[in-house]
Amino acid sequence: MFEFSYRSTGLFEPVFHSHTFYEVYYFHEGKCNYLIGDQIYHLAPGDLILMYGMTLHCPKIDPSVPYVRSIVHFDPAILRPYMELPQAVPILQPFEQFKNYRLSLRGDDKEEAERILVTMESHQRRGDQVGAGRLLLAFADLLHFIYDRCLQPLSEQREFPSDKEKSVQDVIDLLEHQYADDELNMERLQKELHLSKSYLAKIFKEVTGVTIFEYVYRKRINEAKIQFLLQPGVAVTEVSFRLGFKHLAHFSRLFKQHVGVTPERYKKDLKEKRVAMEKVGDGEWTYST
């Protein structure tokens, strides 16, 4: 799977999401806070983000100014031919080691990255087999560029644009450890962070675009998907209780709201996909998503 969108400007409804493929995100212009897992990134033009996939992420944009970004979604398997070449470098290592990471490209580095993106877009516009092949080659070049920049010492200390965003980061850090606690509530957050409930709710929504418990529930649902994938035999009820839901009906309703199907249906679909992929390995028939 390979998808490339160059200088996309379309508006969307911000929602936390995850996916199984890798992502390269390049920020051209706009005002954006990008929440990835437990980190908030205040973006500037030239910022390039690597995303490992399954981590929840969501941009919070200012709609009053143009929001321009280029995005590549890709299955790392498509790069296997390049990884097997003589003198190949491990271009996927930054994704695997850092999971999610921001490169702040400026000056010549910014110009080079944007030049590669322009080349990719020109090959994509051809719309033929040669263009598709050259597009993938140009993307491999981009990954080599990224790998090279990730070798440089990472000594930059994170800074937050404001106390407000630092406070929201503190909330997220706390939620990373307590999101599955069935006793989690605003009173606990207020007590542990020494900030009022109303202030916490207000600034979290301002910075991330969602409420605190929208974030918590989306994180729980994402974790449920991972547990269903990695532990096929686990019961829906067990996962529900593990993730802090006191009532199975509440878990099932939220799961369907976010995923589109019930947890039981999701588990069944995963099982059918596993069976199909096993048959691919036996050479009986193929399965495609």
From TrEMBL:
Swiss-Prot/TrEMBL keywords: DNA-binding, Transcription, Transcription regulation
GO molecular function, one term: DNA-binding transcription factor activity
Domain of life of the organism encoding this protein: Bacteria
Gene3D superfamilies: Homeodomain-like, Jelly Rolls
InterPro entries xref list: AraC-bd, Homeodomain-like_sf, HTH-like, HTH_AraC, RmlC-like_jellyroll, Tscrpt_reg_AraC-type_HTH
PROSITE patterns: HTH_ARAC_FAMILY_2 (PS01124)
Domain called HTH araC/xylS-type: residue spans: 169-269
Full protein name: AraC-like DNA-binding protein
Lineage: Bacteria, Bacillati, Bacillota, Bacilli, Bacillales
